[in-house]
Structure formats: structure tokens, C-alpha cells
Write a structure and sequence with these properties.
The chain is an alpha+beta fold. It has 4 domains: 96 residues; 102 residues, TATA-Binding Protein (2-Layer Sandwich); 113 residues, no CATH class; 86 residues, no CATH class. The chain contains 9 helices and 21 strands. The strands form 4 sheets. Strands 4, 6, 10, 11, 12, 18 and 19 form a 7-stranded antiparallel sheet that branches. A 5-stranded antiparallel sheet has the order 1-21-20-3-2. A 5-stranded antiparallel sheet has the order 13-14-15-16-17, with no helix packed on it. A hairpin with a 2-residue loop joins strand 10 and strand 11. Helix 2 runs antiparallel to helix 5 and helix 6 crosses helix 9. The chain is elongated. Keywords: Chloroplast, Cytochrome c-type biogenesis, Membrane, Plastid, Thylakoid, Transmembrane, Transmembrane helix. Belongs to the Ccs1/CcsB family. InterPro entries: Cyt_c_bgen_Ccs1/CcsB/ResB (IPR023494), ResB-like_domain (IPR007816). Required during biogenesis of c-type cytochromes (cytochrome c6 and cytochrome f) at the step of heme attachment. It is a multi-pass membrane protein.
């Protein structure tokens, strides 16, 4: 008895979740959170928020506004909206579909409360019902007959589609929650020729796992420039290895063309100049670390080389076009050299062997993408199907006439066209029968 009461209690609560006002309120909260997440930059360092939003820092920290889409309350809102949709589907949509599939026969005028349109009366002859059946079938209606009553409907997909709209939204929400728990994001900046593992996590879900046996090698990096000198595109060639085997896959990636391997996606996002490789008298090789600078909107990389205690030179690079500027202590350009070109500093021969760039990669794994995309695809299709009209027609015997009444849930004009077509087909079959009767009588005579 207690179990029965407990089930009733939970069932009542579950049915209350199907309330439209509650669903709209939760949806409004989710939309408001998404707008906030679009306005306020997400996943930034806390220093960024201290500088730009110092007056609201405590609010940002308390509500997690720097990572809205990963906060507990946002996931809770998605979960509650998912429950409301499930409740509405089970308690409202499924019974409505079951009722739509039930054959509803009418035998008298008292039961025509089901209809919205009293269409007309037709003479009840021996073949009237058969003529109506043919007419309805030609109008793509499903026809059922019991005794002297006909019931026909079409557009049942329009009643089924709202259920699948709900299911598609539920799939999107569940996919988002699944992605929250099982996805991860990494950022890697790797010099050319280096091997790297997946380790610099930006975000990881509670149940996400990194592929420890996977590592990658940056084979090459280069940049394609416009004629004006601005960057058009930058490219990286990556080789991926799994379980210390030979290269599993090698691909050239660039912006908008990532590499997907084992459900892990490698995106080309940034680049950097890491170091300058120099040789001294073609016998001693060393590297000079570059530091990125921004001056008046211009980006360049600089490195200082001390020649003596009081004298130094500055190497400046602003692109990967194989040109290196050499400046003195005062910042004046002394000379411009190319890769492989020798030059002298303090009577000592130097040579720029190479510029070592670094590629910036963002690595993501989100197993929920297929679920979310499938949910959106199903929602688009079923949303269009839900606009199909569900039309019903009842025909019953009324003394010496056949009474025809109908109902539709939308697209009244199309329904009226269907009724007009049914009437025309009925008249055609009646006339056809009459002509055959006269022909048959004439032959007998």
C-alpha cells in the first residue's frame, strides 16, 4: 500500500512537470544564460575578468559566469527541461496519438460533436457508401467501415511528428549533458620537429579520459601570404602514433580543416616563432629564444645576443619569409640577412641556419557531437512534418440520406479543397453508375 501511494505521489509530481508555463520559464532561463555566455567572454583567465569586470568579479566567481555552460545550475536547467519534455510526451502526446489512431465511428447526429464542419447530405442508395469509399481513397484518406458508418482520416504523421520533435529536443539536451561529463579540450604550442603528448588540459569532464598511448609529431609548419604581406593561411603537417607503432596517420591541417583521429579532433588555431638557429664559424650551433612583442598593432619577435659586456645586437623577425633584421643597441637596422646567409659581427662569422616556428593546436574530444547533430536533424524534419494537417471525415446513415461531417486541426482551406474533390469524385461515380444502368437497359431492349 505504501509503495502504491509512493508511486502515485511521484506520478503526480511527474505529471506536473508537463506544465507549459513551467517549461517556458525554464526555457527562458536557459536562453538568458546563453545570451550571458555570448556577451561575457568564456573560459578566460581570472586576471582577464579582474581587469575588465572588476565591479562584478564576485558575481562572476559565485555564479561561474566565466564558464556558464559548465556550471552545475546550467546543467540542472537542461536536466529539468529534459524531464518536462519527457513528462509532456508520456502524459499528453502519447495519449493524443493513441486517441488519433482509434477508429471513431458515428451512427447518429447526437455524436457529431467530434466534428467541426457539417459538410452535407447525400442520397442513400445501394452504392452510395461504396462511391464514398472510392472517393475518399482517391483523396489519400484511410477508410474504415462498420455497419452503416464510415470513418476516414489522413495526415496521421502530423500527430506523430510532435512526439518526435520532443524526442529530438530531448536527444539534444541529453547529448549536451553527456558532452559536459565526457568531453575534454587541450591547447598545445609545439615547435616544428618536436613530439608531444596530450597533457595541457583547458577543460575536462568528470568522466573524460585522455588517450595516454597517443602522441604526435609536428613534421612541418609553413605560412601562405597574400601579395600585401598579410597572412592568408597557415599549415601544419602532423603525424600521429598509437602504442609506439609506426605512423598511424599523417595529415596536413589548416584553419577550417582539422584532423580527426580516434574521435579526437586536432584544430589549427595559432602559430608562433619559437627560436632562431644560428651557427658560429659553421662549426658551433646554438639557438636564440624569441619573445613575441606587439608595438602599435604590429606583431614581431625579438631576441638579444650579447657580443661583449657592453655591446649587443637584436634579431627581429616579423614573418616566416626567411628574412631576419639585425639591429644595434640603439634599435637601428644594421643589416637584413636571409636564411643560410653568412654575416659578420665583431669580425666573427655567423650564419642564420633556420627559423624555428611553433604551431598552435587545439585538441578536442566530444563524444556527444553525433547525438546533438542527429537531434537537430530529426528536429528539423519532424518540425516540418508537424505542420501536416490531421483531417477526419465521418459518414453515417441518417434516415434516407448519408450525412457527411468532417474535422481538421489546421489548414482549413486545404481541407475544404479535399471535401470539394471528394464531392466531385462521388458525383462522378454516381453518374458513371447511372450511365452504365441506362446502357444496360438499352441493350436489354
Amino acid at each position: 500500500m505504501n509503495n502504491f501511494n509512493l508511486k502515485n505521489f511521484f506520478w503526480k509530481i511527474f505529471k506536473k512537470l508537463a506544465n507549459l508555463n513551467l517549461s517556458l520559464f525554464i526555457l527562458f532561463c536557459i536562453i538568458f544564460a546563453c545570451i550571458m555566455g555570448s556577451i561575457l567572454e568564456q573560459e578566460q583567465d581570472m586576471v582577464y575578468y579582474k581587469i575588465n569586470y572588476s565591479n562584478y568579479l564576485s558575481l562572476i566567481e559565485f555564479w561561474g559566469l566565466d564558464h556558464i555552460f559548465r556550471t552545475w545550475w546550467f546543467i540542472f536547467l537542461l536536466f529539468i527541461l529534459c524531464l518536462t519534455l519527457i513528462s509532456c510526451t508520456i502524459t499528453a502526446q502519447m495519449p493524443s496519438l493513441k486517441n488519433a489512431r482509434r477508429w471513431k465511428f458515428v451512427y447518429s447526429q447526437k455524436k457529431t460533436y467530434l466534428s467541426k464542419y457539417n459538410i452535407g447530405k447525400y442520397s442513400n442508395s445501394n452504392y452510395s457508401s461504396i462511391n464514398f469509399i472510392y472517393s475518399l481513397i482517391n483523396s489519400n484518406f484511410f477508410v474504415f467501415c462498420r455497419n452503416s458508418s464510415l470513418y476516414a482520416y489522413k495526415g496521421l504523421y502530423g500527430r506523430i511528428a510532435p512526439i518526435f520533435v520532443h524526442l529530438s529536443i530531448i536527444a539534444i539536451l541529453l547529448g549536451s549533458i553527456y558532452g559536459f561529463f565526457c568531453s575534454f579540450v587541450l591547447q598545445e604550442t609545439v615547435p616544428v620537429g618536436e613530439i608531444f603528448h596530450l597533457k595541457n588540459l583547458v577543460y575536462s569532464g568528470f568522466y573524460s579520459t585522455l588517450e595516454s598511448s597517443l602522441f604526435a609529431h609536428v613534421d612541418d609548419f609553413y605560412i601562405k601570404y597574400y601579395s600585401s604581406g598579410s597572412v592568408e593561411q597557415f599549415f601544419s603537417r602532423l603525424s600521429l602514433y598509437l602504442n609506439t607503432q609506426s605512423s598511424s596517420i599523417s595529415r596536413l591541417i589548416y584553419v577550417n580543416k582539422p584532423l580527426i583521429f580516434n574521435y579526437i579532433t586536432f584544430y589549427q588555431t595559432d602559430w608562433n616563432i619559437n627560436a632562431l638557429r644560428l651557427s658560429l664559424n659553421k662549426s658551433y650551433f646554438f639557438q636564440q629564444k624569441f619573445f613575441k612583442k606587439i608595438d602599435h598593432g604590429q606583431v614581431f619577435w625579438a631576441s638579444t645576443l650579447k657580443l661583449t659586456k657592453s655591446k649587443k645586437v637584436l634579431f627581429i623577425v616579423n614573418s616566416l619569409d626567411n628574412k631576419v633584421l639585425i639591429c644595434n643597441d640603439d634599435g637601428l637596422i644594421v643589416k637584413e640577412v636571409l636564411i643560410g646567409q653568412s654575416f659578420y659581427l665583431n669580425s666573427t662569422s655567423f650564419c642564420v641556419e633556420s627559423i624555428i616556428p611553433s604551431t598552435g593546436l587545439q585538441i578536442k574530444s566530444d563524444p556527444s557531437i553525433f547525438i546533438v547533430y542527429f537531434g537537430f536533424f530529426m528536429m528539423i524534419i519532424t518540425t516540418f512534418l508537424s505542420y501536416l494537417s490531421y483531417s477526419q471525415i465521418w459518414i453515417y446513415d441518417s434516415v434516407s440520406f448519408l450525412e457527411l461531417v468532417g474535422s481538421t486541426n489546421r489548414a482549413t482551406l486545404f481541407f475544404e479543397q479535399d471535401v470539394l474533390f471528394i464531392d466531385q469524385m462521388y458525383c462522378y461515380y454516381v453518374n458513371l453508375k447511372s450511365n452504365n444502368y441506362f446502357k444496360y437497359t438499352f441493350i436489354l431492349r
